[in-house]
Every structure is written in structure tokens, then in C-alpha cells.
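INFO batch 0412 | record 1 of 1 | parsing
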Amino acid sequence: MPANKIDALLALRSEGRFLVGRDRIRLLEAVAQYGSITNAAKATGFSYKTAWEAVNAINNLLPTPAFVTKAGGRAGGGAEVTEEGMRLIATFRRLEERLSQFSSIIAEEGLDAQDEAMLRVAGLKISTRNVFRAEIVAVDRSAVDVDVTMQLTAEQSIHSIVTNGAADDLQLAPGRRVLALVKAPFIELGPIDGISASVPNRFRGTIISRIDSDRSSEIRLDIGHGKTLLAVVALARADDLGLCEGGETEAAFDPTHVILVAD
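INFO prediction complete | emitting C-alpha cells
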């Protein structure tokens, strides 16, 4: 196995008892393919007795059987996987694939990537291009809302304002790691030192790229410390600011436009 790979094994349990793992799923798949418990056992390396014990254990722990025998009995008949069994196979393989993706991300990017990995592995597709991992350092509550301060890097922080209910649901507290999401159109660009210093989320950046359409410009900024920020502004605004690759600008966004995601 390559050094940067982690083999994660999935095991499903029912009422505390082992239900199915990779080997049993392979056995069920072989039964579906060959229509015979004998041939399925040979193909997967199970003994005939162990194969029967495995499929019987699965049947005993599921609401409806995953496996049934056909007319003729165990000696002369065949076997088939039921719709319930096929759903079990499909569900297991889907979960196993996501677990494998998650473990690969952890192996390549480290444990700090686990929050973003969960978002990606869960299959969620979001329109927001700006996704940052951050650690909460302060939670300032008021009667109406909560100001959450997050450490992005040693020198950069992000503020988000959420409702008290959201803060409770997400269990926001210092030390908790979250994902901070900001939609590109919510980001304001201005000249260096042209945005008020009182704005909580303000970043100075170097323009990496500019892509224009008839009405808008997509601006990607390097804001330092390995972080980038994507903004979409009106074409006229980009022209007025003289934004071009290699130039500098300031970016800012309102704390109410920062969406927080926690596991």
C-alpha cells in the first residue's frame, strides 16, 4: 500500500452485533452473480459452511431476508439475493467509497482537513467557492445574535454573526473547528486602505487572476498564508479600480454573510 494511503474498513452492526463487512458483501455479490452458494463460496474463498453461516447471520439481523434459496434445497437448488440484499450491497459500497475518500483526504492533507473532508465526502455540492477551515477563538453573545471570531491563520481571523439558536445548534464554543463559507458576490473590493478599518473581515490581497464577462468580473486574490479569496464584482467596478493580475486590492465582507458549518 502506498505511504500516503489509508485503508479504512467499514463494518455495519445491528443491535450491537456484527452484521456485514467487506467479506460478507463480496459473498452476497458472488451469490447474485452465480446464483449458487457453492459457487459463490468458491469464488470468494469461503468454506461452504462459513458461507452459509454468514448469509444466515445477515438474514437474522435484517427486517427482511437478504438471501433466499430456490426450489431444490441447499444441495440441489440455487440461491439468490433479494431486493433487500441488493440494497444492502449498494448502501455498503456507497458508504465504503465515501469512507475511502475521507481516509485518502486525511492521508494526503492531514487531520486538519477532516472537517472539509466530511463536507466533500458527504456528497454535498455547494455554490460557495470560498470555504475556509477555522478555529473558534471567541463567542460573544447578545440578546439577539452571536458574534463568532475564528482564527484562520496565526495572523488572520474571520467574524461571523449568527443567531443564538444557530450557535446552540452548532455548539459553537472556543476551540471548536468549523467551516466558514462566503459567497463570492458578497465580497467587496476596494483600493488599498480604502475600506474602513472598522470592517471586521478585511483582507489585503494580490490579484492572481481576472476573468471578465459582459457584466461581471471574477477576481481571485492571494491573501497570504496560503489562502485565496474569490470575489465577483461588476465589470465597471473592476475597471474603475484598475484590477489586473499582479496588482493589489482590498477585500471585505460582512459578518452576516459568513455561513458556518460544523459536524
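INFO post-check: The first helix runs from residue 22 to 34.
INFO record closed
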